[in-house]
Design a protein that fits this description.
Elements (H helix, E strand, L loop, with lengths): L1 H4 L7 E7 L4 E6 L3 H4 L2 H5 L5 E7 L14 E5 L2 E8 L5 H10 L9 H10 L6 H11 L5 E5 L4 E5 L8 E4 L5 E4 L2 H6 L3 E5 L4 E6 L2 E6 L11 H7 L5 E2 L2 E2 H15 L15 H11 L7 E3 L12 H11 E3 L1 H4 L6
Antiparallel strand pairs: 1-2, 1-3, 4-5, 5-6, 6-7, 7-11, 8-9, 8-10, 11-12, 13-14, 15-16
Helix pairs in contact: 4-5, 5-6, 9-10
Length: 326
C-alpha cells in the first residue's frame, strides 16, 4: 500500500524484499505496483521486516536486472537495498569492485551500493554503512534490509527526501514521502536528517550521524516543483502550499494582462491557483487529463514522453479559443 502511494516517484519497476530473521524473500517486476503484485506473490513475502521500491531509471536502463530492491547473501546474513538517487562517483566505485574481483549483473549504481555494503571493512552493518558513506558522492536515500533490522540512511547533502513514521501497532517505517505514511495509517514523526543513519528493529528506533552534514544542503528543488505529491511534507513545509506560493511569486515578478490562468494537470495546478489568486485573473481548466495514463516526465526518454503527452491530454477548445492564457 505504501508503494501504491509512491507510484508517482517511479513507474518502470516495483519490488519488495522481506526478512523473517533467518530467511529473506523477494518479488519484483517491470511494471506498476498493481501489475507486479497480487495476493499469491504477496503471501510469499513472509517476515516482520520489509523494504520496497518503485523504480524511475536514472543510472541503468529499463531491465529486470536493474529493478530493486537488490537482495544478496553476505557473511552477516541477508542484505537488501533500495536506493533513491544517483552516485556521481559510481564509475570509479564500479572499477574498484571489479579490481577486487566482485562481479556485477546490472548497470545500476544501486547494485554498486549493495556490493559495497556486502564486503568489508567493518564487522557490523553500522560500520559498513558508515564506511560506504565515507566513499559515496552524490545522492542516496537508502533503506537497507538485514536479518534483524531495517536501516535508513540519507546522504550528507540531503538531495532526496526521506522521512520517519510510527505505526499504531508499535512498528516503525521510513519512506521517501510522508504521503506513504498516511496511506498505511502511520504518524509522521520527522524527516531523516542529511548524513543520518536510522536503525528500526524490535527495540524501536536508534539514530546517529553517519556522516557530517554538508556545509550547504542541496535538497532537489524539483521535488517542490513537480516530483513530490501535493499532500506530502518536505523541509517542514506542505508541498501544496509551496507550489501555491511559487505561483503567487511568479505573478508578482511577471504580471501580465490575460483572460485565464490554467495549470497543466496535475503538478502545476497549485502553481496556477497561486498565480490566479495573486493576479486576480480567473483560474480555469484548459486541458482534460486521461486518468489512465501515468506520469509522463518520468518516462525513460523523450519519444515516450511525447507519446504519453499526446495520449494524456485533450484541450477544452471553448475555454481556450480567442483567449489570452497564462
Amino acid at each position: 500500500f505504501a508503494l501504491y502511494a509512491l507510484q508517482h516517484r517511479g513507474q518502470e519497476a516495483a519490488g519488495i524484499a522481506t526478512s523473517g530473521g533467518r530467511v529473506a524473500h523477494i518479488h519484483k517486476g517491470l511494471s506498476l505496483v498493481s501489475q507486479v503484485f497480487n495476493e499469491e506473490n504477496v503471501s510469499y513475502l513472509q517476515g516482520r521486516l520489509a523494504i520496497g521500491h518503485n523504480r524511475y531509471s536514472t543510472t541503468g536502463g529499463v531491465r529486470l536486472r536493474n529493478a530493486q530492491p537488490y537482495l544478496i547473501e553476505t557473511a552477516l546474513g541477508p542484505l537488501g537495498v533500495a536506493h533513491n538517487g544517483n552516485l556521481t562517483n559510481a564509475p570509479a566505485l564500479r572499477r574498484e569492485l571489479f579490481d577486487k574481483g566482485v562481479g556485477l549483473t546490472s548497470s545500476s549504481d544501486s547494485e554498486v551500493i549493495t556490493q559495497m555494503l556486502a564486503g568489508p571493512p567493518g564487522g557490523t552493518w553500522e560500520d559498513r554503512i558508515a564506511a560506504f558513506m565515507e566513499r559515496a558522492q552524490g545522492a542516496y536515500s537508502l533503506t537497507i534490509l538485514t536479518r534483524n533490522a531495517v536501516y535508513a540512511a540519507r546522504d550528507p547533502w540531503g538531495f532526496r527526501p526521506l522521512c520517519l513514521g510510527h505505526l499504531e501497532n508499535g512498528g516503525w517505517v521510513a519512506a521517501s514521502e510522508s504521503c506513504a505514511l498516511a496511506t498505511i495509517g502511520a504518524t509522521f514523526e520527522r524527516e531523516i536528517e542529511p548524513g543520518e543513519i536510522v536503525r528500526l528493529d524490535e527495540n524501536g528506533v536508534t539514530a546517529w550521524q553517519g556522516a557530517e552534514p554538508a556545509d550547504e544542503l542541496a535538497l532537489c528543488i524539483f521535488e517542490y516543483i513537480y516530483f513530490a505529491r501535493p499532500d506530502s511534507l518536505l523541509g517542514g513545509q506542505s508541498i501544496h502550499r509551496v507550489r501555491r506560493c511559487l505561483g503567487a511569486q511568479l505573478a508578482r515578478e511577471h504580471p501580465v494582462e490575460a483572460d485565464m490562468v490554467m495549470g497543466v494537470p496535475d503538478s502545476a495546478t497549485a502553481h496556477a491557483i497561486g498565480y490566479a489568486h495573486q493576479s486576480g485573473i480567473p483560474f480555469g481548466e484548459g486541458l482534460i487529463k486521461n486518468r489512465y495514463i501515468g506520469r509522463t516526465f518520468i518516462q525513460p526518454d523523450d519519444r515516450l514522453r511525447q507519446r504519453g503527452v499526446a495520449l494524456k491530454y485533450n484541450t477544452l477548445s471553448e475555454s481556450l479559443r480567442g483567449r489570452r492564457i497564462v
